[in-house]
Amino acid sequence: MGIQNHPVSIRLSESAKDILDSTARRLRRSRSYVVEAMLKGQSQALEDSAPTDGNPIEARLKSWRERADAATSGRDAKNIDAMIRELRGDD
Question: CA 84 to CA 82: how far, in whole Å?
Fold first, then answer.
């Protein structure tokens, strides 16, 4: 029996969709592949960064920023900051 896929609908900002599309093109894979790979790779990291007290959103964003900085050496900090603002809903 093969792997069973389940359709899921999500809403992304234009910039997040652009990132997803460019990553999929670069890897020559589908959007679904990229999203699934990222979820599998980041789920434990997200759980590990879940705060136990204080402002959970700010603490989680700070943790993601630190992880992004470490994982994206050479990437533009301006793009990372824009993604963080987007997650916060500042835009």
Answer: 5
Taking the alpha carbons at both ends of the chain, their separation in whole angstroms is 45
* pLDDT tens column, 53-91: 666 777 777 777 777 666 656 666 677 677 777 777 765
Euclidean distance between CA atoms 53 and 86, whole angstroms: 23
Proportion of the chain in helix, strand, coil states, percent, rounded to 5: 65, 0, 35
Instruction: Write down how long the chain is.
Output: 91
Region of 44 (left: φ > 0; alpha: ψ -120 to 50; beta: rest) is alpha
The neighbour count for residue 34, using CB atoms within 10 Å, is: 19
